[in-house]
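Weekly sync, protein design subgroup
Attendees: M.S., D.O., the rotation student, P.L. (late)

Item 1: inverse folding check
M.S. brought a backbone from last month's batch and wanted to see whether the design step gives back something sensible before we order anything. D.O. pointed out we never logged the input encoding, so this time it goes straight into the notes. Structure tokens as presented (264 positions):
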């Protein structure tokens, strides 16, 4: 269940609650009040947003987030079998870990949809042994198989692993690690069916059902647990959004002004 706690935000406490005392005019706007959005676009965002993002960006409410990050996702409804036939393109997204788990997602494109068709997940604590960069490169190559990869999207902090991949001949793109924008973009792409998690990706599906919000230093943030496949999922979504020539920057504008309308 999502806990709504707008009373904890400093601006709400100091300005909205004290508007009369501060001689400030308080006006409440919703997305319906945005003259720059057509009826079609407003309808799209009403369908695309859910949970905390719907309450904030559609209804204009002051709330803190608590509960599942992707609360709209239902494994039985949304996880799909791997589609049959050929894929137009292939990519791998990587959240690198040595002491923490490492998670790789293999993505294939059919039409305008990207499917996460396979994955690699290694937890060194459970296995009792850490892997080297060279071993992870081999794991990634095995995940790719004979598929020609457009790119490998990697956790930007994994400098040594990025170098090892490049020496092996892979085209590497450093991921955008903006967490809050990444979650918004990922949620939008999942809800619109632009990215689909296949039922072959058990660790990603396990994590998405556990990935939750917490308050950290007075700000909403995802709990740092069950988040490794969620990180590589987010890296892939942000990279895909950025391909449109502004999707990532448009996502930032959601907090500043209103919902964005990226075109992939």
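Designed sequence read out in the meeting:
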């Amino acid at each position: 269940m999502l806990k709504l706690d707008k009373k904890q935000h400093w601006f709400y406490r100091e300005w909205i609650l004290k508007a009369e005392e501060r001689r400030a005019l308080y006006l409440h706007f919703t997305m319906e009040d945005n003259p720059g959005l057509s009826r079609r676009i407003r309808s799209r965002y009403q369908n695309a947003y859910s949970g905390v993002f719907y309450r904030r960006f559609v209804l204009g409410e002051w709330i803190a987030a608590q509960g599942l990050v992707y609360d709209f996702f239902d494994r039985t409804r949304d996880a799909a079998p791997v589609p049959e036939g050929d894929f137009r393109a292939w990519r791998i997204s990587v959240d690198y870990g040595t002491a923490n788990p490492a998670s790789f997602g293999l993505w294939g494109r059919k039409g305008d949809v990207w499917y996460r068709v396979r994955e690699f997940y290694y937890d060194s604590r459970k296995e009792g042994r850490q892997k080297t960069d060279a071993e992870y490169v081999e794991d990634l190559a095995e995940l790719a198989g004979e598929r020609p990869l457009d790119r490998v999207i990697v956790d930007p902090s994994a400098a040594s692993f990025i170098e090892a991949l490049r020496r092996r001949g892979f085209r590497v793109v450093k991921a955008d690690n903006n967490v809050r924008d990444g979650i918004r973009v990922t949620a939008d792409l999942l809800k619109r069916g632009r990215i689909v998690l296949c039922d072959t990706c058990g660790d990603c599906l396990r994590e998405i059902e556990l990935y939750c919000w917490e308050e950290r230093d007075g700000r909403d943030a995802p709990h740092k647990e069950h988040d490794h496949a969620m990180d590589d999922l987010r890296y892939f979504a942000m990279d895909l959004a950025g391909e449109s020539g502004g999707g990532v920057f448009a996502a930032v504008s959601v907090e500043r002004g209103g919902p964005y309308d990226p075109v992939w």
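Discussion: The CA atoms of residues 95 and 232 lie 5 Å apart. The radius of gyration is 20 Å.
Action: P.L. to compare against the previous round before Friday.
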